[in-house]
Amino acid sequence: MDKFNRRDFIKGLGIGSMLVSNSELAIANMLPMSGSFSDFKALVCIFLFGGNDSFNMLIPRSTAEYNIYKSSRQNMAIDKPDLLSINPLSPDGSQYGLHPSMSNLQSLFESGAASFVANVGPLIEPTTKNQYKNSSTKLPPQLFSHNDQQNQWQTLRGRDMLSTGWAGRAADLLKDNITNQAMSINLSLRSKPILQVGNTTVPYVMGNNGPLNIFKESDSQKLAFEEILDIAKSNLYEKAFIDVQKSTVLNIDAISTALDNAPTLSASFPNSSLGKQLKTVAKLIGSRNDLGMSRQIFFVATGGFDSHSNQQTSQPALLSNVSDCMSSFYDATVELGVSNSVTSFTQSDFGRTLSSNGNGTDHAWGSVQIISGGAIDGRKIFGTYPTLEIRGPDDASDGGRMIPTTSSDQYAATLARWLGVSDNDLIKIAPSINNFSVKDLGFLV
Q1: C-alpha R_g of the chain
Q2: CA nearest to 42, candidates 322, 267, 286, 408
Q3: pLDDT, tens digit, for every residue of 258-286?
Q4: Which of 115, 126, 286, 394 is the most exposed, having the fewest neighbouring CB atoms within 10 Å of its CB?
Q5: DSSP per position, 257-300
Q6: Prediction pTM value
Q7: To which H or E segment does residue 120 belong?
Q8: How far is CA 19 from the centre of its chain?
Q9: Nearest to 55 by CA among 425, 393, 390
Q10: Looking at residue 402, what DSSP letter applies?
Q11: What angle do helix axes 166-174 and 408-419 make, rounded to 10 degrees?
């Protein structure tokens, strides 16, 4: 078959674009065999696309602080009697409550299986309000842009352009300590995030429920494709490409088999996209021994948090879904006996303005993130919760854009260190980490 006909044949099978995509991804599975980790650990990034209004998720409920909050938030404020009270073990003089739709997260927090990191966001160096106003400190560019801030959270690039993400760089550093994993360290169930792209490793990408079966219509498709791959090639590039395609097919088979044979879970997951993604992650973790896994970083995501309008209508369901899904996932890790080995954490584009635009809120900066798992120093609020006052000491503008007091570099470095990245290598994960006196926030024990 000449190249044109071969391309047409693959296109006719309906698998050409899938193979081009997975050819790159399969390279990630060619891991070294040296190996030194004898335990299992996994991170699960839950990305909330759009910019979660997290100051309506974790809310002060002591009288003075709540009154400032209510004045700033105007018609976006949650009524104080509706807040779900929590009792942090790290008191800062204020009382706190959760959005009324997050009862499962309330239970998770009170049980010690969850904590919060307050007012965290992209920073190059510590920044005060005066420094921000005077432009006397280095700042990440395009602070209130969706794409730029998603990229900042996932790459920690600061002002430098980076083509890799911090989880990808972590995989680069960890892979020499891993023996014969059947899957890449990094696995995404939501497209190919730059978070997981490394210099020498790339994520394996699949759907909510597992790999797409590209030969699902008939075995003859697979046989025909394998015959094409077996045709002798003299060109070095063609040979390499064929090897990758063969690896892709083997990966699909191995992961699909592992999911089919995964332990049956009694934990009940919401029937949402995020719920399906986290259930698949739990099943893969349940099959970790069959797949020879010792270190993994999973990426799952859900959207809808860009609440410029209809926030009061949309936010309760969004936060309820996050709360229910994180609780179900933690229950699954307990059931599988790996709750101390699996840590889930949220990221989002940015926080949102304290001020209301009448029907919603706009793009801001610092935000509150959730961390959960048996290894978490639970029932605490890490970092410094800001004064939720428009034009107050933490407001970068006149609209209630909180200047972060904890950097996303510190947040990522803490997670990467727990996974096994050495202290000396943390700067490769978080390029600005040495600008901060605290490199490990202490939320993992």
Answers
A1: 23
A2: 286
A3: 999 999 999 999 999 999 999 999 999 99
A4: 126
A5: HHHHTSPPP-SPPPSSHHHHHHHHHHHHHHTHHHHT-SEEEEEE
A6: 0.89
A7: strand 114-121
A8: 26
A9: 390
A10: B
A11: 20
* Pair of tokens at residue 194: 């730059």
Are 168 and 201 a contacting pair, CB within 8 Å? Answer: yes
Of 79-83, 215-219, 361-365, the one with minimum mean pLDDT is: 215-219
pLDDT one-digit tens code per residue, 232-263: 666 777 766 666 565 566 677 788 889 999 99
pLDDT of residue 103 exceeding 60, the answer is yes
Q: Strand 367-372 to strand 295-302: parallel, antiparallel, or no bridges (unpaired)?
A: unpaired
With beta carbons less than 8 A apart as the criterion, state whether 199 and 172 touch.
yes
Is residue 21 over pLDDT 80? no
State how far the Cα of 301 lies from the Cα of 319, in Å rounded to an integer.
Answer: 13
How many Cα atoms are found within 13 Å in the side-chain-facing hemisphere of 205? 19
- Residue 394 near residue 387, CB atoms below 8 Å: yes
For 308-366, strand residue ranges (E) read: 342-348
Could you tell me if 395 and 389 are in contact, meaning their C-beta atoms sit under 8 angstroms apart?
Answer: yes
- Decide if 119 contacts 386 (C-beta within 8 A): yes
